[in-house]
Every structure is written in C-alpha cells, then in structure tokens.
Amino acid sequence: MSKKKHNNAEEIESGLTAIYRDDGGDVPDLTKLEPVKSRWWLYTILAGMTFVFVLVAAAWAGFSLFKPFRGFTGQGLELQVEGPESVSLGQETTYFINYRNRTSEPIASAELRISFPSDFVVSELDPRPVGEEMTWKLGALPVEGRGTIKIRGVFTGALGTTTALQVVGSYRPASFNSDFEALATKVLQYANSVLNGTLIVPAKVLPGDRVAFSYAIENAGETPFEGLESRITLPEGFQLDATSTNGTIDGRVWRVPLPVLAAGASTTVVVRGSFASGVSGEAHVVAETGRTSSEGAFLPSQRTETSFTVLAGDLSLKLVVNGNDTDQAIAYGSPLRFGISYENTATEDLRDVTLRLRVEAVSSTPGTAPLVDWATLEDNASGTRKGNVITWGKEQVVALKRLPPREDGFIDVGVTALQRSAGFPSLAFRVTLEAEIGAVGSETVKRVVKSAPITLRYLTDATADVEARYFSEEGAPIGSGPLPPVVGQTTTYRIQWTVSKKFHELKDMKMSASLPKIASWPGATVVDAGEVSYDEQTRTVRWMLNRLPAIVNESTVTFSVAITPTEADANRFAQLLGETRFEATDAETATLFTRTAPALTTDLENDEAAQGKGVVRKP
After folding, report:
1. Domain end residue (candidates: 310, 339, 370)
2. Which residues contact 170 (CB under 8 A, 6 or more apart)?
3. 221 shares a domain with 160
C-alpha cells in the first residue's frame, strides 16, 4: 500500500516538473514567487470621477434650461432723445427722453440722469424728478416696459457753438446682482437766435469828428430775456466821448448792461467819441449781446459787425512817454519825458492851432490824489499850466499861428513822478495830447483832434534792503569769531534781507546773491515766509516767496555767512556777499520788476558796535 502511494507522489512531481520546466529544462524556484496584488482602489477612483462628471454636466444642463445666461452686448435699457439738433437761442425748445426695456426679462430697478448744457434754463419737467435734480428713479420695468420724460426750456449760450445733451441710464435685470449702464447723446448746434441786432455807423469820418455808433437789439421771441449785456468792440484809435457814461470800458470793449427785454421789445446802445489824430483807413466795429456764464465767459446770443472809412486828417499828432507810445508802468520818483510832435497833413494852411497836454486820473485813482510832481516841470516851449493841463498857443509857439502844409514841430516836456510818500493804492493816470484847429485855409472849422491816450500806472514801491551785522541793535553778539577778522581764522556774520512796501501785492518773489570764495554756508536761517536755500555748486543763496499780500508791508529773512580771510584780504575790507538781485511781479499792474542792492563787506556801516573793526588783520 505504501509503495503504491510512493509511486503516485512521484507521478505528480513528474507532471508538475513537466508543466513548469522552461525551454532550457530548468524548473523555477516556486518558493520565491510574489503574490498578485488587488486593483480595487483604482476602479473606485475611476467610478467616483465618472459620478462627479455626471453631476456637473447635469447641473449645467439644468442651469441652461431653467436660468439661461444672457450677457448684454448692447443696451438692455434702450434710450432715445427726440428734439431738434439745430437750436435757436432764446426760443423755448422741447426734448423727449424715451426709454424701453429691451431684455426678455423684467428690470428690477432703473434710473436716468439727464445732463443739459449749463446755459439751458428749464421751464418745464414732466414728470418731475424726486430728490436729486435731473435724476429720475424709474423703479422696476416689465419686459417691453417703456416711458417718456418731457423737458422744455431755453438755451442762452454762444451763437455758433456746438454742445450736447446726454442721458445716462443705470439698470439691473431681475436675474443679475450687478448694474448695467446705457447712454444716449444728442449733439446740438446753436445756429440761430431770437435776438436781432442792427449796427449803424457813419460812412466816412475825419479824425476829431464827433461820431456815434448805434446798436439796436430786438427780442423777436415769445419769452422775455433777462441778464443781457451788450459789448461793442471799438476800432483802433477810437476815443470815447465824455457823454458815454452808461457803460464801462475794458480795453477796446465797451460793456453796457441791458434791462429786461420783453418779448417783441427792443433797446438801443449808443457809443459816442472821435478818432485819434493820425488814424486813417478802414475801421471795424463788432457788436454782441449775450449773457455771462457762471465761469465768467461771455456767451453772445447775437452778433453783428460792419466797417467804414476814416479819412486822413488835417493835423497829425504824436505823443510818446519815455520813448514809448503805449501804456506803461512807472516807478515812484522816476523821471518822465513827454515828446509832442505835430504836422500839417492837409493841403492848405492850418491857422490858430492850440495844443494841450492833459493829465487825467483814471477811475481807480482818488479824486484828490496828485498825479505827478508839477514842481519839477521842464518845458522847452514855455507852455501855460493850469492844474493838470499844459497849453501852447500862438503866443508860446509862433508857428501855431499859421502852419503850412507838411510843416511840423516838436515840444519836449519833463516832469518827475510822485515820491512814494505821496502815493495811493491803484494810482494811475492817463495822458492825452489834443489840438484845436481854428481854420483850414479860409474856412473856420474849430475842429478838435486828439492823440491816442497813454495810461501810466505806478508800480509798487517795494524796496529790497540788505544788511550785515556782528552785533544786534541792542549790542548783543549775533556773530562769532575774531573781530576785526583775522587771516586764516573764521568769523561769522549775520545777513538780513528785507522786502518792504506800501502798495500792491507781490507775486513770485525771488532774491539771490553769491558767496565769495572765502565764505562758507553754516546753514543757520530765520525766515518770516517762503524758503531760503543754498546751492553749493553755484555758491548762490536764494530766498523764494510765491506771494506777499497787499496788506503785508514787510517780510524778512536772516542767515549766517562765515568767512576765512586769506593773505590777499589782509589790510582791507573782505567781501561777505555779492550783489543782491531782487525780482517780483506787481500783481496790480502785472509787471515784472527788478531791484539790486550792492555787495556787502566786513565794513559794517549800520552796526555801531562793529564800526571800525572791518579791516582784516594778519595774525
């Protein structure tokens, strides 16, 4: 029995060997075979990802089906402006602002802001806005919901300009949590006006002839015009008559405020005057009527212009002041030279000619204020002065009794401007040369001709003072080091710059000076206002102040300068500071002016305690 079992075992082993034997007849070591690992976790991950993907796809499908996304590429809220593009100034105009919900769902909230030009005067709003001006809160709008806002008013801007009306909408669709905007703009042309203007001028005039310009303005509209002003731009060389008192002159522009101009009413502005001697050729007049904007700009609603001829006159006059025939700013105490020339430009003799030089205060000058120092008057023709007028007739200048054609002459007058002690704020005066012609040939004319006036305005009386000290006015030392200064040793001095004045505001003040080679900058400064700086490369000290008001009469800065004299400075005064230059703009006359002060040395003239101690000594 055991033998039989043994034979069966051998048979089984022989069979397995046959199964596992490789091509070379070897049997592998079955005890070292690795077990096969299970892959269940990989299948679990793949199944989970598939499930998530299916959920996301289902969610997007549901969102697309029940809440479709609608991005607004255009205007979800449609805006439209109805009304004329061509505007007639002064005439009531109506505009309709239409709005509509173009989306396929309700609008939860909507708001409109309407912006008109600043010159638009509203007369009717339907419906009226609640709360903020020119802002309408429309609330919710259903699909295809719509409405209209009616706005009526008058434009009062400048004729010929272009502007725009703009509507800005803000809305939120029911399915969104953010706002969208819509915009509508209408360009407007100010092409016409209900104001009509007629300008009447003479066809031909002579210099000296009294002439008038008549400007009639009519309101052809249906509503009254308020706050109007007429402006007439006068020709070059035209001088206003003393009777023209209903307006003000600004350069060559005559400005006249108008009363309320009712519908269908009219008014007339008249300007009288004469042309200055020497003016001839074509003269041009421009007349305008309009309002002034809140920013100060003039907005003409009516404009008309015309030209006429100025004939060559009988007598040519020329006036210059200090070599110039234009308006000028003058300094207190400065010399004034008036050059007066005249020439007969007629073809016949001029007889009994009288010349007058008039010095007249301008409106801003006090009536009792002196204008020049007449005590210093010099006149090479010995004219007669009465008040502020100098007269020359045939008794003073024999040639004026009969002045042949092309005959000319010249008179020189000198006078000194006022000293600062006699000045007033805004002091200014006007100088005019006039001539009265008794006869041209045998014809008596009694014609008066004038030169173009020259306006002279007194500059600020500002002065720049420079001072160096070692001791204060009370005698306390404010400097340091040896005094007198010693070669090779350092002495420090205190420099004071002072700007003082009585009249006018100053702008953009600058004061500067250079330090000598033996000096250094300790950096100790005391400043009332502005800023003091030192440039090491140029060795320049600067004080800068942007404004010194009219009510402030003085401003001062002080700084220290240290010098170390060399052998070359021995036995003489050493230089502390170079020439000081001061410049500023007079705000009253808009004139840039300069002042200079001499260089400073160790000779301290104003420091009593340091006098006699300025010469540099050797050690």
Report:
1. 310
2. 110, 111, 112, 113, 179, 180, 181, 182
3. no
- Distance in angstroms (rounded) separating the CA atoms of residues 589 and 328: 9
The percent of residues above 90 in pLDDT, for the chain, comes to 58
Give a yes or no: residue 49 inside a domain. no
Tokens of 194: 């209900």
Cβ atoms of 163 and 190 closer than 8 Å? yes
Question: DSSP 3-state assignment of 527?
Answer: strand
pLDDT tens-digit readout, 283-302: 999 999 988 887 788 889 89
Tell me which residue of 149, 138, 147, 148 sits closest to 172, measured CA to CA: 138
In one-letter notation, the amino acid at residue 539 is: R
Cβ atoms of 279 and 236 closer than 8 Å: yes
**At residue 64, does pLDDT exceed 50?**
no
Beta strands in 53-203 (DSSP E): 77-82, 86-89, 92-101, 107-115, 120-126, 135-141, 146-155, 162-173, 180-193, 195-200
Distance (Å) of CA 172 to CA 33, 102, 109, 178, 179: 73, 12, 6, 6, 5
How far apart, in whole angstroms, are the C-alpha atoms of residue 13 and residue 30? 13
H or E element at residue 3:
helix 2-20
Whether 428 is covered by a domain: the verdict is yes
Encode 185-198 in three state secondary structure.
EEEEEEEEECEEEE
Nearest CA to 83 out of 133, 150, 159 is that of 150
pLDDT digits (tens, 9 = 90+) for 203-251: 888 888 889 999 999 999 888 888 899 999 999 889 888 777 788 888 8
Q: What is the CATH number of the domain that holds 528?
A: 2.60.40.740
Indicate yes or no: pTM above 0.70. Answer: no
Half-sphere exposure of 367 (CA within 13 A, CB side): 0
Predicted local confidence at residue 369, as pLDDT: 74
Type of residue at 483: L
Task: State the total domains in the chain.
Answer: 4
Q: What is the pLDDT of residue 598?
A: 92
- Residue 184: which domain range? 77-193
Last residue of a domain, one of 458, 482, 508: 458
| SS3 per-residue string spanning 588-610 | CCCEEEEEEECCEECCCCCCHHH
